[in-house]
Design goal:
The chain has a single domain, classed as 2-Layer Sandwich (Nucleotidyltransferase, domain 5), CATH 3.30.420. 38% of the residues lie in helices and 16% in strands. Helix 4 crosses helix 5.
Length: 224
C-alpha cells in the first residue's frame, strides 16, 4: 500500500443508536459471536446508525448476508421508528424474492440477528420475520461484539460513504449517496474474507457450483 501510495481509512467509535425495550419479549442469541455461514440466506445481521446532515440527523438501517457480506437491504429516514428497519427488511426480502431465492415469500431456516433495540423487538417486526419463516436472534444488551459484523459494516459505511461524500445536506442526498455506495460495495468492492472478490460475484459462484453439483447428481445412475 505504501509503495502504491494507498492509505487505509480510520473508522470512528461506535455510537449507540438503539435502546432496549425492557417490556418486550427477548429472542435467544443463536449466533454467539460466530459470524459464519455455509450458504446465502442462512444468517442475516442487521443494525442502524445515525448520520448528521445540514437539515438534521438522518438514520440508516442495513440488512447484510453473513455468507457473502452483501448488503441485501437498506433504508434512510429522518426518524427512527419501527418502519425504518422494517423497510430495510422488506427490501432484503424483495431482493431475494426477485432473485428467485424465496419460496412463497419465505426463507425457511434464515436466522435474523440483531441487537436488543426496541425497533427490532417490536411486535410488528417480529410478525414480519415469522411471515418470512425467519428465526430471530438477539445479542446481549449494550455489547457491540454480539453484533460485530453489522457494526463493522456501519464503520465501513461511515468511512467510505458518509465522510467521503459529506457533509450531506438532506435525507435525499444521503439516500442517493447510500444507494451508490451499496451498489459499489456489492458489485465492485473486494472483500478479503471472501477471497478478495465482490459479494455479488461470491454469491454467483456459490449458485453456479450448486447448479453444477445438482446436474452431476442428476446424471448419476439411479437418479433419473
Amino acid at each position: 500500500m505504501r509503495r502504491l501510495g494507498l492509505r487505509g481509512v480510520r473508522r470512528g467509535q461506535p455510537v449507540l443508536t438503539t435502546s432496549p425495550d425492557r417490556q418486550a419479549g427477548r429472542a435467544p442469541d443463536l449466533v454467539d459471536r460466530d459470524f459464519t455461514a455455509a450458504r446465502p440466506n442462512q444468517l442475516w445481521v442487521v443494525d442502524m446508525t445515525y448520520v448528521p446532515t445540514w437539515s438534521g440527523t438522518v438514520f440508516t438501517a442495513f440488512v447484510s448476508d453473513v455468507y457473502s457480506r452483501r448488503v441485501v437491504g437498506w433504508r434512510c429516514a429522518s426518524r427512527m421508528p419501527t418502519e425504518l428497519p422494517l423497510d430495510a427488511l422488506e427490501m432484503a426480502l424483495w431482493t431475494r424474492e426477485r432473485a428467485g431465492q424465496t419460496r412463497d415469500g419465505r426463507l425457511d431456516g434464515l436466522i435474523h440477528h440483531s441487537d436488543a433495540g426496541s425497533q427490532y423487538t417490536a411486535i410488528r417486526y417480529g410478525d414480519r420475520l415469522a411471515e418470512a419463516s425467519a428465526v430471530a436472534s438477539i445479542g446481549s444488551v449494550g455489547d457491540s461484539y454480539d453484533n460485530a459484523m453489522a457494526e463493522s459494516l456501519i464503520g465501513l459505511y461511515k468511512s467510505e460513504c458518509v465522510r467521503r461524500d459529506g457533509p450531506l445536506r438532506t435525507v435525499e442526498d444521503l439516500e442517493l449517496a447510500t444507494a451508490s455506495w451499496v451498489h459499489w460495495f456489492n458489485t465492485n468492492r473486494l472483500h478479503s474474507k471472501i477471497g478478495n472478490i465482490p459479494p455479488v460475484e461470491y454469491e454467483n459462484n456459490y449458485y453456479a457450483h450448486q447448479q453444477a453439483r445438482d446436474e452431476q447428481r442428476s446424471g448419476e445412475p439411479g437418479l433419473h
